[in-house]
Structures are given as structure tokens and as C-alpha cells.
Amino acid sequence: PYRATISHEEFARGIAKLIKDIRYTNFKNEVLRKMGSQREQTYSKVWHTLQELEGLTNET
Hints:
Mean pLDDT: 93
Structural class: mainly alpha
Shape: extended
Strand content: under 5%
């Protein structure tokens, strides 16, 4: 196990740089291109499951 300590400001700058470096327009197409159809299909299943959950209430 490893642990790093940075300030919130440093973390925010790092995340902002990662976001600025995104060069694709469609995430799922980029997953297909770089990681293959099996990974893209898995991501699509997760995406659809999360969309279904948005319609549910917090009933127990």
C-alpha cells in the first residue's frame, strides 16, 4: 500500500490538467478504440444500469 499527501489546491490543479488534456468527443467510442469491444460493452452495461437507477427512489 502506498499513500501520497498533497494539498487540495495541488489535487485540483492535477485534475484540471487531466480534464484539459482530453481530446476525444465520445467516451464510449474512445474506450472501444483503445481498449476493445469487450471493455466497451462492459462500460455500456454499467452506463445503462446507472441510468435505470436514476429512475428509482430511495425506498427500502
